[in-house]
């Protein structure tokens, strides 16, 4: 429909990058684009840590399950939900901050996601490629220690950034009728629509992997959701001052 929509619909995760460096001025411009995202009540609760130290990058790659592009990408960013600076603002005005609320955790996490997606879209508009690294939460306490994160700050995910050295296909998304409902939540037709979608995803994986991966979307998701999902997250977040009430 227009260049912006075409760009959004062409998103792919990029895990292989050329050796071409990304100028620091470009990184800073992308962060400014991230800052322009919507922010709940103007809290601006995202902090970005650019990790350049090779030793730290290697350790973060290990924390993320051995994903080599965490260490190899020209730029690696860690997006943190940050309520610590809000404590600072309260201290500046001799105000007693009320913290630990679930709502604060939600708004800070959402701020971080909105910030990062603005940055990703801006990066792709410049011909850069990206891939989010949620695997940092596999060993989130180690990541927090490596980055010297204080209480009221937690690493939400990482992001590899660089010029693409691969050209993967766009991964098919769910049909619009599955995710767009009218007036009320009605999933009566979803089973059939997901069954049809499963066939497209299976074909996509076969093409992408040369036939080595034969799996549908519902098989992938159901297989994932019968397992525990990072049960260490809740105690970690509570230790850091989140989700206390």
Structure description:
Keywords: Flavoprotein, FMN, NADP, Oxidoreductase. Residues 9-163 form the Nitroreductase domain. This protein has 245 residues and is α+β, with helices and mostly antiparallel strands. It has eleven helices and four strands; from the N terminus they run H-H-E-H-H-E-H-H-E-H-E-H-H-H-H. It has helices spanning 3-9, 24-35, 54-63, 69-72, 84-92, 102-125, 140-146, 176-179, 190-209, 217-225, 233-239; strands at 46-50, 75-82, 129-133, 153-162. The protein has a four-stranded antiparallel β-sheet with strand order 1-2-4-3. The radius of gyration is 20 Å and the shape is globular. The model has no long low-confidence stretch (mean pLDDT 97).
Oligomer status: single chain
The low-pLDDT segments are none
Widest beta sheet: strand line-up:
1-2-4-3
- The helicity comes to 40-55%
In CATH terms, the superfamily of the largest domain is NADH Oxidase
Tally of separate domains = 2
Family: Belongs to the flavin oxidoreductase frp family.
InterPro entries: Flavin_OxRdtase_Frp, Nitroreductase, Nitroreductase-like
Protein name: Oxygen-insensitive NADPH nitroreductase
Keywords: Flavoprotein, FMN, NADP, Oxidoreductase
């Amino acid at each position: 429909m227009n260049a912006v929509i075409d760009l959004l619909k062409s998103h792919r995760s990029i895990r292989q990058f050329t050796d071409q460096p990304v100028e620091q001025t470009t990184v800073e411009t992308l962060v400014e684009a991230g800052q322009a995202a919507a922010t709940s009540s103007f809290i601006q609760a995202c902090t970005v840590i650019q990790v350049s130290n090779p030793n730290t990058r290697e350790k973060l790659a290990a924390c993320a399950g051995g994903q080599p592009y965490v260490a190899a990408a020209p730029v690696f960013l860690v997006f943190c939900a940050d309520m610590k600076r809000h404590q600072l603002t309260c201290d500046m005005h001799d105000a007693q901050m009320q913290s630990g609320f679930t709502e604060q955790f939600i708004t800070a996490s959402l701020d971080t996601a909105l910030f990062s997606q603005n940055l990703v879209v801006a990066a792709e508009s410049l011909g850069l490629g990206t891939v989010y690294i949620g695997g940092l939460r596999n060993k989130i306490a180690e990541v927090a220690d490596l980055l010297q994160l204080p209480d009221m700050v937690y690493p939400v995910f990482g992001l590899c950034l660089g010029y693409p050295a691969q050209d993967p296909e766009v991964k098919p998304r769910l049909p619009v009728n599955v995710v767009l409902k009218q007036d009320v939540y009605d999933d009566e037709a979803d089973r059939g629509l997901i069954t049809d979608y499963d066939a497209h995803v299976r074909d996509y994986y076969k093409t992408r992997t040369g036939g080595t991966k034969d799996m549908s979307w519902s098989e992938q998701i159901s297989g994932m959701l019968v397992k525990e999902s990072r049960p260490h997250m809740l105690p970690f977040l509570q230790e850091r001052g989140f989700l206390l009430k």
